[in-house]
């Protein structure tokens, strides 16, 4: 019961689909809490006689009348307050690691395709990669020529050029080998699931901190959203404290609704 309004067990059971988990009791508790919060918000919106029109939601559909009431209530009772400039600047200064460009490395490679489940072909591919590596040690300027002639990667047509690579864009062995190279260096054959690679690092762009002006609006939006969610949570806690709820004890300070 929420202020003399019953919440049926079947409605809680239906709501549980939004709170999957291994523990039935935990899912039931979360579903019941969500329905209590929703009922409190609807009761407050009706108490204030809010007049609203359903709008399009983020999926492109039209929100229900109840969702429209809750939205109107939050807009009236808990309007967002824009983060002050000094808070935005302090967040930027306190968390420099969050505003760095990724490590970008420009590379080229020659791939000799191979599969471990084909022993003879695998051994031949390894030998071919070793042979090409020896040639490149003697004449590194032939990298593009050898890539066009021998690489089993489509990049061979471009002389093996892969362009700029960011973290996670290649396989872990490839990325680890690339990290160990200095610009201009050519790796020994590197085995991956695709075969053997000869990798040359062309240039490395080290991470740098983005200027404040480039990220200030993003920081402001994030801080404003976080503050708004906390304010909504406090408002919900206030409604819970003032309500007559029977058969269930929700947390005094529920997490922010999404």
TrEMBL record:
Keywords: Isomerase, Rotamase
Record field: catalytic activity: [protein]-peptidylproline (omega=180) = [protein]-peptidylproline (omega=0)
Highest taxon in the source lineage: Bacteria
EC number: 5.2.1.8
Organism: Candidatus Macondimonas diazotrophica
Molecular function via GO: peptidyl-prolyl cis-trans isomerase activity
Protein name: peptidylprolyl isomerase
Family: Belongs to the PpiC/parvulin rotamase family.
PROSITE patterns, alphabetized: PPIC_PPIASE_1, PPIC_PPIASE_2
Keyword Isomerase: yes
Enzyme class, UniProt record, top EC level: isomerase
Gene3D superfamilies: 3.10.50.40
Entry keyword Cell division: no
Annotated Pfam families: Rotamase
InterPro entries: PPIase_dom_sf, PPIase_PpiC, PPIase_PpiC_CS, PrsA_foldase, Trigger_fact/SurA_dom_sf
SUPFAM superfamilies reported in the protein's UniProt record: FKBP-like (SSF54534), Triger factor/SurA peptide-binding domain-like (SSF109998)
Residues annotated as domain PpiC: 102-203
């Amino acid at each position: 019961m929420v202020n003399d309004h019953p919440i049926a067990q079947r409605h809680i059971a239906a709501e549980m689909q939004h709170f999957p988990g291994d523990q039935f009791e935990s899912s039931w508790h979360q579903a019941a809490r969500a329905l209590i919060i929703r009922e409190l918000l609807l009761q407050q919106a009706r108490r204030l006689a809010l007049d609203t029109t359903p709008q399009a939601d983020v999926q492109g559909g039209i929100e229900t009348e109840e969702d429209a009431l809750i939205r109107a209530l939050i807009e009236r009772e808990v309007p967002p307050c824009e983060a002050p400039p000094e808070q935005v600047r302090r967040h930027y200064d306190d968390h420099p690691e969050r505003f760095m460009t990724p490590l970008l490395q420009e590379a080229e490679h020659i791939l000799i395709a191979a599969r471990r489940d084909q022993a003879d072909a695998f051994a031949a591919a390894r030998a071919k990669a070793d042979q090409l590596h020896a040639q490149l040690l003697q004449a590194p300027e032939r990298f593009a020529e050898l890539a066009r002639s021998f690489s089993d990667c489509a990049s061979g047509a471009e002389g093996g050029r892969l362009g700029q690579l960011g973290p996670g864009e290649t396989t872990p062995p490839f990325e680890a080998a690339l990290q160990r190279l200095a610009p201009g260096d050519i790796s020994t054959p590197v085995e991956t699931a695709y075969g053997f690679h000869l990798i040359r690092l062309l240039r490395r762009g080290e991470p740098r901190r983005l200027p404040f002006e480039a990220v200030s609006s993003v920081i402001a939006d994030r801080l404003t959203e976080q503050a708004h969610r906390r304010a909504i949570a406090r408002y919900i806690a206030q409604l819970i404290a003032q309500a007559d709820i029977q058969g269930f004890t929700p947390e005094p300070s529920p997490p922010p609704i999404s």
